[in-house]
Amino acid sequence: MKQRILVIDDNEMMRAFLAQFLKKFYEVRTASGSSAAWKIMDNEYVPDLIMLDLRMPEVSGLEMLQQLKSSVLYNEIPVVILSSINKTNEKVDCLRAGAADYITKPFNPQEVAARIQYHLKVNQPSS
Fold first, then answer.
1. How far is it, in rounded angstroms, from Cα 113 to Cα 38?
2. Predicted confidence (pLDDT) at residue 94 exceeds the cutoff of 90
3. How far is 118 from 78, CA to CA, in rounded Å?
4. What's the whole-number mean pLDDT along residues 80-105?
5. Considering only CA atoms, which of 121, 1, 126 is closest in space to residue 49?
6. In what order do the strands lie in the sheet with 79-83?
7. Which of 40, 41, 65, 46 is nearest to 54 (CA)?
8. CB burial class (10 A; 0-12, 13-18, 19+) of residue 14?
9. Which three-class secondary structure state does DSSP give residue 17?
10. DSSP characters over 75-110
11. Does the pLDDT of residue 31 top 60, yes or no?
12. Are 3 and 27 in contact (CB under 8 A)?
């Protein structure tokens, strides 16, 4: 069974690109914002990894990250931040809030794939 990735980004082209790129290796769902993402997860789609944009209309990516990390159900899911914000304080805030990684847009798809693979491997339960 393929591992699951949830991509949360308000940019339709970014969601489509990531879904197309990642679907070769993973089961991918996309959401345009936090409410759509919560609906997907509430319908028993629990992702193995979440890719989260910081700048979104309803709830910021940082706020959503904080909600995920304070949730009993979702706090163990690695969250990779994808953002055009390349400021150290933003990165530090996200990492302190529990983000597994922070990737700056524009990004190299091969680097994103390698980081996803790493975080999924690290977070697999040991047998």
1. 24
2. yes
3. 11
4. 93
5. 121
6. 27-31, 4-8, 49-53, 79-83, 101-104
7. 65
8. middle
9. helix
10. TTS-EEEEES---HHHHHHHHHTT-SEEEESS--HH
11. yes
12. yes
Residue 28, amino acid: V
Please determine, for residue 44, whether its predicted confidence score (pLDDT) is greater than 60. Answer: yes
Where would I find the H helices in the chain?
12-22, 34-42, 61-69, 88-96, 109-122
User: Band of the pLDDT at 123, cuts 50, 70, 90?
Assistant: confident
Query: Stretch 15-43: mean pLDDT, rounded?
Result: 95
Cβ-based neighbours of 49, under 8 Å, separated by 6 or more = 3, 4, 5, 6, 77, 78, 79, 80, 100, 116, 119, 120, 123
How would you class 34 by CB atoms within 10 Å of its CB: exposed for 0-12, middle for 13-18, buried for 19 or more? buried
Cα–Cα distance for residue pair 45/84, rounded to 1 Å = 27
pTM over 0.70: yes
